[in-house]
Amino acid sequence: MNISALSPPRQLHLTTSGQLSLMLLVTLILGLVHLIEGPRDIPFSSLAHAIIDYDPNNFEQRVLIALRLPRVTAILLAGICLAIAGYLMQLTLANRLCEPHILGLNAGASLMVVSLTAFPIVPLIGPLRPLAASIGAAIMFSMVLTLASSGRKGLQALKLIFCGIAFSTLANAISATILLLDENTLDELRFWLVGDGASAQLSTVLAGLPFIGLAVLMSLLLLPQLNAMSLGDNMARGLGASVKLTRFFALCAAALLSGTAVSLVGPIGFVGLISPSIWRGVHARPTRQSMLLIALTGASLLLAADLAATSIISPQELPTGALTGLVGAPVFMWIFTRRIR
Predict the structure, then answer these.
(1) What one-character DSSP code corresponds to residue 16?
(2) CA distances from 299 to 96, 151, 296, 306 (A)
(3) Cα angle, residue 194 at apex, residues 218 and 203 outer, rounded to 5°
(4) Chain segment 200-255, per-residue pLDDT in tens
(5) Quick one: 208 exposed, middle or buried, by C-beta within 10 A (0-12, 13-18, 19+)?
(6) How far is the C-alpha of 79 from the C-alpha of 92, rounded, in Å?
(7) Distance (Å, whole) CA 294 – CA 130
(8) Which of 89-103, 116-130, 179-193 has the highest mean pLDDT?
(9) CA distances for 45 relative to 38, 49, 297, angstroms
């Protein structure tokens, strides 16, 4: 008898290239399905004609280009932004629970947009909206870090999480108060505030592209330093890495990514928590491949959530942020219980 026949089957382990190819294929499929499915299904031939020879007088092609393409693009970019932001925060703070929504970045970005919409000191047109949201995210996160670092024991994982939740609650309460006192702002931002890409416009997407490009470029340039920091701060200093500067610029990039994502689709949580948690080894040695893998994972997760939001009770739609919260909250509790054991 062949002894190998009695041995258990080998587990299939994809290489990094295989993982990247898989996630790229999944992202493309989800994007295409999202474009052609909706309250009114559109045949793939119309999508092909819209890409090759766009006819503005064709109703189906106008729906694809004017309505669905901006939404899918905004959702895809927001998923990429949130995933990379969560990855950067987890690497720089050495805490797998770090995520823009949990640590107050999304709440700070939302509060800034709500405040400037209700009290338009500066009109939020063009690139000013993602810029304002990024500034709000950075201010809120700096407050969270300052409070969490106070005390004799300094910065600790649980303190950081609790401070993030506390400041998020405070920012959300202020936003809710402003909205209750200003019905026009409430009507304008009603769906955006629960996390939804339905109101995304091509102009908003184009305004956010420079900020996304800058933040991604910063992240890539910081990767060698982050790789050294994965060995510990002391080892990183011994290898010539500037720990404080790396941490500062990495968190600036995370704030820029989070703010831009919020400006595109509103405050959506847990994408930055789940995306890096799916893959093993991405925290031990951060590389360009691991960052790209996590970015594609975030895009796929948010595309799948938005597709489900438009399909579950069609023709009505659910908020995309509600679906990510339903999935993300149990994942957060699972990771949290594992970390405190």
Answers:
(1) H
(2) 20, 38, 5, 11
(3) 55
(4) 888 889 999 999 999 999 999 999 999 888 877 788 888 787 888 998 999 999 99
(5) buried
(6) 20
(7) 22
(8) 89-103
(9) 16, 6, 28
Residue 15 backbone class (left: φ over 0; alpha: ψ -120 to 50; beta: rest): beta
**Burial (Cβ within 10 Å: 0-12, 13-18, ≥19) of residue 186:** middle
Please tell me the pTM assigned to this model. 0.90
Cα 78 from Cα 208, distance rounded (Å): 10
One-letter amino acid at 36 equals I
Rounded Cα gap, residues 125 and 115, in angstroms? 14
Q: Which domains does the chain have, with CATH numbers?
A: 84-268 (1.10.3470.10)
Residue with tokens 């400006």: 263
Phi and psi for 242 in degrees, rounded to 5?
Answer: -90, 100
State the DSSP string of 236-267. Answer: HHHTT--HHHHHHHHHHHHHHHHHHHHHHH--
b/e burial code for range 128-156 (CB count within 10 A of at least 16 → b): ebbbbbbbbbbbbbebbbebbeeeeeebe
